[in-house]
Structures are given as C-alpha cells and as structure tokens.
Amino acid sequence: MASRLDSHVDLVAPGWDYRLVKTRSEPDVSPGISNIISTEAPDVERVVISARDGDRTAFGRLYDLYARMVHGILMARVPLGSVDDLVQDVFVMALRRLTSLRQPASFGAWIAAIARNAANDFHRRPHTEEQPAEDMPGAERASAATDYPEGLLILDAIGRLPEAYRETLILRLVEDLTGPEIAARTGMTHGSVRVNLHRGMQLLREKLYSSPGNRPGQESS
C-alpha cells in the first residue's frame, strides 16, 4: 500500500520510482476532520473552550484535528517506535493543562510546544539500551520499507536535515498537510512555512543527488 508521499514524489526527486507503504506509526483520525481547522478556525476555538470546560467529546475532536501535527513533530525528533506513546503522552499532558490555556485560538501552537518539549524530555531520559540504527530518527520511517529502498532513502535524508526543515517537510510530505494547514496548526507564519519548505526541499534534493549512486535510475556501486 503506497503512502501519501506518492503524491509528492515530483516535488522531491523527479524520476525516482518512489513509493512508501503507510507509515507504521500513524494516528487514527476521523474522516473529514483533518481539514477543518484551516477553514473554520472560529469553530476550533469553540471546541477548545468546550474541552476546557470539561467536555471530553470536544477534547476528542481536538485529538482528531491535531494528532497528525503532533505525530509529525515527534516523528521529526524521536525514534519512530516511540512516537505513538509520546503522541498519547502529549495529549494527556494537554488535557491536564488545558485550564491554563488563556487563548483558545492558540491551541495549535500550544500543543506543538508541548510535543517539542516532550521530544526534548525523551532525549534527556537515560535509556538502558542503545537504540538500534534502524530505529533512530530518519532511519526507519515506514513498515516494510525495505520493499521501497528509494522511499526509505528519501526519509533517511529528511532525518539528516536541520530540525526546522525536518519538521516542516515531514508535516508536508508524510502527514500530508498543506503549507497553510501547517501554519494554522503550528502557529508559524505563512512566510516561515514557505521558507522552511522551499529551503528544506533544496537541501533534501542536494542530499539525494550528492552521490552518483543515489541518482534516479542508477544502481549504487
């Protein structure tokens, strides 16, 4: 089964036989929910207020709206095998702290900051065993990825980009958010998102084409 990255292949590396299976770690969101925030921001604010007042159904809708963003932020920073648990941790922390959120319209930027802090805390904690290379950020991004080595190579390259570009590219290419949706969810300006996507794509192409063996249609020596 191909992933969302299929539709973005020409943006990254024209000519590649570029397919990835669905990411192994992906939040389950309700159909039709994922695009609401960019077109109905006032509704989101009302949902946050309801959730802050104790409406658990409203908080579940916030999960539907923001789980993909949180997932992408964490995917850019921690081993893939830890992403699902951290997504749940982030929303638990958000639920506990929701009464402290004074500006409901800022929920996206607020929970994005919680996610980034959770990733930082993850790396501060001692780990009894060294993470295997295939479970490090940028290494294993999809289940059965060995079936699609070129797709894995592209995700590997994303994992070696600076953090700001890595996050924005994963939100765009893996989580399938548009530039305006990324800005609306994360609280970033549209200009910052455009710059990160443009520069990130440039750096990604440079990494993909830096070695002759990585060029489309050529076999590695």
Give a written overview of the molecule.
The chain is mostly helical and 221 residues long. Helix content is 57%, strand content 0%. It folds into 2 domains: 1-21 and 147-221, Arc Repressor Mutant, subunit A (Orthogonal Bundle), CATH 1.10.10; 37-125, RNA polymerase sigma factor, region 2, helix turn helix motif (Rna Polymerase Sigma Factor, Chain: A), CATH 1.10.1740. α3 (41-52) packs across α4, α4 packs across α8 and α5 packs across α6 (107-124). The protein starts with 8 loop residues before the first helix and ends in a 12-residue tail after the last helix. 38% of the residues are buried. The model is unreliable at 5-11, 13-26, 29-40 and 130-146 (pLDDT under 50).
Attribute tags:
221 residues, mainly alpha, Arc Repressor Mutant, subunit A, Rna Polymerase Sigma Factor, Chain: A, 10 helices
Q: Which percent range fits the helix content? A: 55-70%
Number of strands: 0
Instruction: Give the termini distance in whole angstroms.
Output: 29 Å
Can you identify the CATH class of the largest domain?
Mainly Alpha
Low-confidence stretches: 5-11, 13-26, 29-40, 130-146
Indicate the radius of gyration in whole angstroms. 18 Å
- CATH architectural group of the largest domain: Orthogonal Bundle
Sheet having the most strands: none
> Can you tell me the number of structural domains?
2
Q: Helical segment tally?
A: 10
